[in-house]
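WARN retry 2 of 3 for item q-0093 after timeout on previous attempt; input resubmitted unchanged.
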Amino acid sequence: MTKIISGFSKFTKQEKINWIASTFFTHGDEAISILQKYWNDDQGLQQLHDEFIENTVSNFYVPYGVAPNFIINGKTYAIPMAVEESSVVAAASLVAKFWSSRGGFNATVISTTKIGQVHFMYEGDFTELNAYFQDVRSELFRATETITKNMRKRGGGILNMELRNKSDKLDNYYQIHVTFETKDSMGANFINSCLEAIAHRFKKEGIEIVMSILSNYIPECLVRAEVSCTLDELGDNGAEFARKFQQAVQIANVEPHRAVTHNKGIMNGIDAVVLATGNDFRAIEAGAHAFAAKNGQYQSLTHCEIHNNVFKFWIEIPLALGTVGGLTALHPLAKLSLELLQKPSAKELMQIVAVAGLAQNFAALRALVTTGIQEGHMKMHLQNILNQLGASENEKQQLIMYFNKRPVSHSGVVEAFEKMKSQKI
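OK item q-0093 returned
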């Protein structure tokens, strides 16, 4: 049977499900049951979800949790996190409580400039091209006036526009590099609309427009978050802990194999808040990792120093986030998340998200240089293993108590469970 189908998008949802079930599943009825089980009982809410993307057949849920006790710039937050990894919310909550009695987190937005580019090819003389660009530059701004009108009222719009010669990288390649301020909007659609208007006006014999698109690499849309305290405030053996902690950060700064895992832990916290607030975590990921490689080698996004008996730990990271428009205005949980965060501006949300990443990294490094990462992680993962094994609530409670002071491993849990089932434990 061929698996290629035409007109799939025109099927009803039930027809799509029936086709999938009969074409790809041995037990089609079971597949249909699972897909329908995740439909929302609220028809209006389900229709909203159905219309987010094409060919929706069900919803894919991830847990939505809250990490309390974050103090950021003197203000207390409970941070929403949408994430399936078992230890993320627990680690964030623990670190928030730890730093709440040590002055909390300080965060500041360094800049909010975003970037878009018109990419084009030109085989002629660069001097003539540059002269043409300078002649029409003011007209390129005017070409976007109807698009930027409302954004300009809010204090945003196009900041600058320049011609860049990239022909040393690729023959005949040039770009119009445009910088934007989009205020509380992430601004993707706004930026792309402006760029297409600019490209349309820039048309001229010899100029071949290739594409017009925003960039998710935004090194000038930057936020910094940090914590600091005396070595004594770090607890017993504070100086030794700080020394090893700093070494762990330094290793991530010089060893890319470690830096990738180091930064992945940071993104555990960042992505969870970005997703919970209806922002684009894929764009944030791409921009953050590009920023980590800005010096020619992939490095740590966090930094640490010990000076005059003071421990300081901080992150600088590009974050293009919005609190208005897009999914933030449509998804009920995204709107709820922003209300939980006390209706932050885009700048405030940048600060909150950066803090979540810093907290996650502190938790991971603290575990790595003390007890090891597996002890805490596997304790949190124990519940998942027990669910996979089909343990009853009574069996779960007994095994959680059994592993309270024992190392957790998948094989160890399986062995203990089997012994329990055979009444040998």
